[in-house]
Specification:
Elements: H1 23-30, E1 36-40, H2 43-57, H3 64-68, E2 69-71, E3 76-77, H4 82-85, H5 89-97, E4 105-109, H6 110-115, H7 117-122, H8 132-153
Parallel strand pairs: 1-4
Antiparallel strand pairs: 2-3
Length: about 160
């Protein structure tokens, strides 16, 4: 992770961090106040996606079915296969909870992120009810700064609507 200065936000989006045993301790050592966003998908879909990614690079790997089971007849799943192992989210979360409280972790549904991005991201944190007069005064305060910002960027964001 690159160093983050006061007032900066650093983003790292390596998928394997959530499942890497050493990651929580290392991140905690960098900053205990780190806020974490974890995007998760249906573990079955995720395993199939992982297999498909590997298959695109190594077309001669065994079938998904043969990798999934230790014993297909008994239905015993091979939990040593990384594509299966990664989807055992509760196990990985236990590791993170040794360092970070749930209040610092936001879980985002990968499926909802695809089907309803605004709805999924909007569920992250609800804002308190603020007196409408206070909101209006803030809008009035920010209006000239917003107008200048719109001019500077060449883009009107519609914050004054």
């Amino acid at each position: 992770m690159p160093k983050t200065l006061e007032g900066q936000i650093t983003m790292e989006k390596t998928p394997s961090y959530f499942v890497t045993r050493e990651a929580p301790a290392r991140i905690y050592a960098l900053s205990r106040d780190t806020k974490l966003i974890v995007v998760v998908r249906d573990p079955v879909t995720r395993a199939i996606s992982d297999y498909t990614q590997t298959l695109s690079k190594k077309p001669d790997i065994p079938t998904f079915e043969s990798l999934t089971f230790k014993n297909r007849t008994t239905g015993l799943i091979d939990t040593s296969w990384s594509a299966i192992q990664i989807g055992i989210y509760a196990k990985h979360l236990d590791n993170w909870l040794q360092f970070f409280p749930m209040s610092q972790i936001l879980f985002v549904s990968g499926e909802r992120l695809i089907s309803d991005p605004a709805g999924e991201l909007g569920r992250g944190r609800t804002h308190p009810n603020i007196d409408p007069e206070v909101v209006q005064r803030l809008r009035d305060f920010y209006r000239p700064f917003n107008m200048k910002f719109y001019q500077m960027t060449g883009r009107k964001f519609g914050w004054d609507d």
